[in-house]
Request: fold
Amino acid sequence: MENPSMKQYLKNSILLLILALGISDRANAANLQASISPSEGDVGTTFQLTLQVQGELNEEIEFPKVPGLTLLGTSHSSQISYINGRRTSSIAFIYSLKAEGPGDYTVPPIEAKINGSTQRSNATKFTVEKPSDHVKVKGSNLPGAFVQRNYSSRKPFVGEAVLRTTKLFFRIKVVEENRSISKTDHTRFFSDIDKEMGQETFSGQRFSVLSYNDVIVPGRSGTLNIPSDYVSIGIQLQSSRRSRGSFFGELFDDAFSQRTTKTLSTKEDSIEVQSLPSQGKPSKFSGLVGSFKTTADLSIRELKQGETATLTIEVEGRGLLDTMGALPLVFDENIKIYPDKPVNEEKVTKQQGIWSKRVYKFALVPNQAGELDLGTFELPVFNPDKESYEVLKADLGTLQVMAAPEVSKVVTPNSPERSGLDKTEVESLTRDFLVDIHRNFDIETQTGLNSTNRTWLYTIAGLAPFLFCLNLLMHGFLSRSGQPNAKQRRSSALRYFNLDKQNWEAKWLQTDLSTEAIESYYRIYKDFLGNKFNTNGSALTGREIERICDSLALSEDQKSNAKEIVKSMDQLAFSDGLFSAEQGLKLISKMDALISEIDRHVP
Reply:
């Protein structure tokens, strides 16, 4: 017969064992281990810290900040397995690190919440040594690899492009390379240009040479300190197990060798940057430094009044042109100038350093017949090759402008085609027009009136003064009762504009945006201004519109937009077809923005 107490004892022991095994499984399931590779390296070496997570990760891991270490990036890999029916998972996080300088570094324990509890990894340590500029080879006085750096000029001028060449010499087996550079203060920098592979002789020994080319453009005078560059190389080393002259060693090189990484450092150096001389500096010098030339070309030399000629000016050569501003061209007052946005091209090569080209285009619209002298384009620059200033010149030549042809059609004194006539011309035209009517119009012969119905004509003519007076009375009554006053016009200006805009869109927006469409929108814009300022919008001149905008507390951008709108409409009137649909939409957008701004300032 079984002893009950013994039976209970066995049952409790089994339960305790199962519980202990469960706790052990959970403890083993939650684990966090850190390791780093390599444990020793140079400045410029990339160190990889691997964090192995065993179990279910409940939240993201935050990598600790360590002074002097830069986290370059993170990657991870995961693995899930089943052992004796139990599911286990692990994740490996790999952190790429780089040290700013030599020394001993410690990454503290990293915390992570795994399987619901907080775990801590072990701390990791590694050593960073100061890199050398060469790699030693046992049994030889010559290095196996080294780096050098030189400059096309050690005393450049401010703004002069300097070619810097960093060379990696090696006579050992280099299987990979990577360079890291630091930007120099107060310079513009163009790196990794035309990387070249070649061979050179050094101390009687033939070396393979990898050249890195950069361009530095100093922005101020004085001593320019340039920090070291780092070149990391992967080296394939011969194994000590391999015998010299081994035939199989030559065939199976990878099997009898190992790889390691070395970081080479150039020496810190400096260059002396000269300021530009004050002697001989042209008054209009804008700061261009380089060896340049300029050309000018005109699309047409003979044209009619109101037609367009395109002037193209190109500046190109060795040096930077991207900071070059607008060209201050000044022509005869009878030529309107419409500049296009300049185009800049740039190439950086070992032979030329920085080569730049800047293209300017201008639409020239003459409004007077005759021979117009365009003069000479001049651009002062400092040429570092000659160490002196020079003025680039291009003769623009002349324009032969013929008078616009007469348009044979009837023009009345008040027609739009005669709006540009002066008072004398209008009076003369009016007189000729009335004389022509008086001379050619005979009421009886033209209408067939006889003595019977002539009586009705005289009766109607007698009523004309009475009807005229009645019309004046009605107009005055309507003005007082139904017409909006200045305040009403101002407050309703935007509403009127939106109604006009809807009608405009219904008519024009579904078709190609023509000159007529843009001019129609401009009239709506002027009507809005007329309502806002209680004047006749259609009679507003461009100069009056500019004065209105200048008098308001508008932003400088909006004031500039107002002037640009007037200028663009002037251009549109003088040069048929010069506007594209895209330009027209931009112009309309500017009008809309200006209307909103004015309505906000003038409620």
Summary: Confidence is low (pLDDT under 50) at residues 23-28, 242-256, 407-449, 478-483.
